[in-house]
Amino acid sequence: MVSVHNKVLNLATGIGLVSDVFNQSNLDKLPGDMAIGHVRIPVEGCDVVIEVPDSGVVATLGYAAKSGVPYQQGLIRSHYVGRTFIEPSQKIRNFGVKLKLSPVKAVLEGKTVVVVDDSIVRGTTSSKIVRLLKEAGAKEVHMRIPSPPLITSCYYGIDTPSTEELISNRMNVEEIGKFIGVDSLAFLPTDSFCKLLSSDYTNFCYACFSGRYPVYPTTAMEECIDDKMMSAVPAN
């Protein structure tokens, strides 16, 4: 997560959108805060809530607490495989998903499942996850994302794909849902996302959600970025 103070960028360690926002002192209040996703767009007849480990676990706990639906571990993660969305090729990303996640059939079979992940980047990893869940016997799969859609790339140190590769830059929510194969899909709106931050939320960077970059790139940085990104920066 990038924050901006006096036009100076500050980059937090790690890249999980939810885990970067909250520190240990805030964990006690998370179940109530992260329940916004359930209040906005509930899933009728949901049997179980699961996370995409490990990035989705915090939001999953909040969703389950508010909905009253049991939280269970429906996907087991191998911690020997890193983040798949930053891998250089789709073939490697697909292979990485298969190595990284194993579905728990006893949790999923015949169930209407809500699966929570921190974000959707290209959409290809999400589609593989949905396929894993349905192959394990899930009757329905509904995905909930506790962050707004990513519409532009980050140029401040997070190794995200180019803007053209971001699925939310090319498709609306309904189209993304069809692409990844879920029965329903919902993102957390930007205004609700901001409510989860501290009172100093105006100093965070939301460029990947809005396309409005808070700090104009330096000359050295301009040489590394594409024309589309430059057009997204508001004129002074």
UniProtKB/TrEMBL annotation:
<protein>
    <submittedName>
        <fullName>Amidophosphoribosyltransferase 1, chloroplastic</fullName>
    </submittedName>
</protein>
<dbReference type="InterPro" id="IPR000836">
    <property type="entry name" value="PRTase_dom"/>
</dbReference>
<dbReference type="GO" id="GO:0006164">
    <property type="term" value="P:purine nucleotide biosynthetic process"/>
</dbReference>
<dbReference type="GO" id="GO:0005737">
    <property type="term" value="C:cytoplasm"/>
</dbReference>
<feature type="domain" description="Phosphoribosyltransferase">
    <location>
        <begin position="69"/>
        <end position="142"/>
    </location>
</feature>
<dbReference type="Pfam" id="PF00156">
    <property type="entry name" value="Pribosyltran"/>
</dbReference>
<dbReference type="InterPro" id="IPR029057">
    <property type="entry name" value="PRTase-like"/>
</dbReference>
<keyword id="KW-0315">Glutamine amidotransferase</keyword>
<dbReference type="GO" id="GO:0004044">
    <property type="term" value="F:amidophosphoribosyltransferase activity"/>
</dbReference>
<keyword id="KW-0808">Transferase</keyword>
